[in-house]
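Why predict the complex rather than its parts? Because the way molecules touch one another can change local conformation, and only a joint prediction can capture that. The input here totals 512 residues.
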Amino acid sequence: MWMAVGTLSAASEGEAATGKDFDVTDMIMHHIGDSYVFHIISFRNGEGELVDVSLPLPVIVWHEGHLKVFLSSRFSGGNELVALGDDHLRLYHEKIYLTDAAGTLHYGADHEVLNPRPLDLSITKNVASMLLASLLLSLLMINIGQRYGRRGGLAVPKGMQLVVEPVVLYVRDDIVNAQIDKDKAGRFMPFLLTIFFFIWFNNMLGLIPFFPGGANMSGNIAFTLTLAVFTFFASNLFGSRHYWQEILWPPGIPIYLKFLMIPIEFIGMFTKPFALMLRLFANITAGHIIVLSLTSIIFVLQSIYVAPLSILLSLMIFALELLVALLQAYIFTLLSALFIGLAVNEHH
Amino acid sequence: MGILTPDPGLVFWTSLSFLLLLLLLRRYAWKPMLRALKVREEYISFSLQDAHDAREELRGLEETRKKMMEAARLEREKIIREARELRKEIVAEAKKVAEAEAIRVLAAGREQLERERRETMAALRQEVGLVSLEIAGKILHDELKNDARQQAVIAQYMKEMDLN
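Output of the joint prediction:
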């Protein structure tokens, strides 16, 4: 928290120094958005210069048969162009565009950039954060998994096992087994357990207000979209005959209603994962926005006296967000299990 | 809106890391974990069943023990009762035998006494006979110093003998 406040204060001082007002929306959008650098800290040195300490991240772009991998520091914050084949890459507002040698950007009516973008597979701040979460998760879980292999599975659980085990049991018994038929639940158990811990770890890492946390990966639409698509495949690829019958030729209703129901059921196939996607995205992003907004009050009002209230409020929301991090992982997993259960269960 | 447009790079990396994580964790974390949890649950339920069975068995044993104790108690009482009766019988028998023996001994004693008395009497009679004979001899010797006297005595005796 304090680091975030420090960052904000440095940022606001930076803005003030250039004579502009502190733009809350811009700051928040920057924080919840993605970046090609991992910002660590900003401070003013002895000469009063603003020093930005950031970790440059690898940029991986592919365009018309040309693949280029380089550190984002080569853009020097958007001032330099990087050549890729016949084109040039320009970093502008945290996005990479293809430009000519002069770096010309074409703007549309709403001041949006019209330049094409290359296929961008860069390890951005969000990706780095997610990879870190995945690394932590796999190290922890594989370590724990090894301990469960001891003494034929009867070793006394210790340490982190005692933390993870109740969660795994809860997911197994009250989410997966409760929603999916017993004989089919085992097949989806690894998927749902992974999705639960993956979301939870990414949420938690996003809540850490300083490096290497603070990214907003689980509040990014691409992240939630991907997971929702996995749930979509998990439920539809293993759908029972009964499930497809319900969609393609609903039984027990008059024929004219069938033609009404079929499109509804068909759309329903997509609205379910769509709701999953939006729910996680909105909840996590909203949490980040609220914490940042409450902290920004200090800089909007430009008064130190509002700081105690502002920080108290943001701390409360922050505590709430810790709960939401778990809750959203739970809801995503529960609804995924529910949708899979609807598709694969033999009877309702 | 920028934040509502999914970035293909993020989709790619999310898919890649999620799938890798899924494969990795399924193999090295969830499988051993779920198996161990299952083994533990079965072990606990088996142990509980085992303890229940053992308790039942113990209860059965306790009942058997009680039954055996009761049987032993009854047996003991029976034996004691029998022994008491036997004792009574033996004592009665012994008494009978002793009485008979006593009677026999008494009778034998009495017989002995009688025999001895008779013998004594016989001996006494003999002795008395001898002494009286001697005395008689002496008297006769004295009496029969003269013939008249002798005649008188013989006559006397003869008379007496007739009486006998």
